[in-house]
Design brief:
Strand content: 15-25%
Strand order of the largest sheet: 2-1-3-4
Structural class: alpha+beta
Radius of gyration: 12 Å
Largest sheet: 4 strands, mixed
CATH class: Alpha Beta
Number of helices: 3
Helix content: 40-55%
CATH architecture: 3-Layer(aba) Sandwich
Number of domains: 1
């Protein structure tokens, strides 16, 4: 599983990164994550409000900081499909 945080240098991006790291510790999955902060990634995923959370190439959330529980729920939904 591949997870990206687009817009990782903004204050909410930093908070989202902390929540993601917390969620990864709780989930028993092999997860690679990347932090992106370039205009190319923003355009590629059509992100208007930072940060964006991209799981397996699909934009999952944008413009808000998800809790670790919300992130875990998204991770589990992608592992069952």
């Amino acid at each position: 599983m591949n997870i990206k945080i687009i817009g990782s240098n903004c204050s909410n991006g930093i908070k989202l990164k902390k929540m993601l790291l917390k969620a990864i510790k709780e989930v028993d999955e092999k997860i690679d994550f990347e932090l992106k902060d370039d205009q190319e990634s923003l355009k590629k995923y059509n992100i208007k409000n930072k940060p964006g959370l991209v799981i397996n190439g699909k934009l999952t959330a944008e413009g808000k900081v998800l809790s670790d529980r919300e992130i875990i729920k998204y991770i589990k939904s992608y592992t069952t499909t």
